[in-house]
Amino acid sequence: MSMSMSMSLEEKQNIIRQVMSAQTLHMFQEQLDYSSKKVEALKNDESNEGAKEFKHHAAMIQDIKMRVETVIESQSSLKETEGILSRLF
Fold first, then answer.
1. What integer pLDDT is reported at residue 62 of this predicted model?
2. Measured distance CA(53)–CA(71) in Å, rounded
3. pLDDT value at residue 76
4. Closest C-alpha among 72, 10, 67, 8 to residue 80
5. pLDDT at residue number 18
6. Distance between the two ends of the chain, CA-based, in angstroms?
7. How far apart are CA 14 and CA 23, in angstroms?
8. Which of these, 87, 70, 86, lies nearest to 2 by C-alpha position?
9. What was the pLDDT predicted at 79?
10. Sequence-separated (6 or more) residues with CB below 8 Å from residue 76
11. Is the separation of the CB atoms in 71 and 14 below 8 Å?
């Protein structure tokens, strides 16, 4: 199991705040809010355009989630590596 999976939500949020700029976090939050509203509004739209827009916004949400998870995992791996190295030297 990766170290990030065993972290609490608060620990993950602290890593995100330390690594990502406030501007980036704000942009992500705005995009998540907007895309979440669009996904909710389009979830029953069966038109081609509605389905296309739904998929676009769902992909945006997934992309942001993946980016945040990558930051958390990278920082977790870095801290784990630093811990190993400090025990060796």
1. 97
2. 27
3. 81
4. 72
5. 84
6. 26
7. 16
8. 70
9. 81
10. 2, 3, 4, 7, 15
11. no
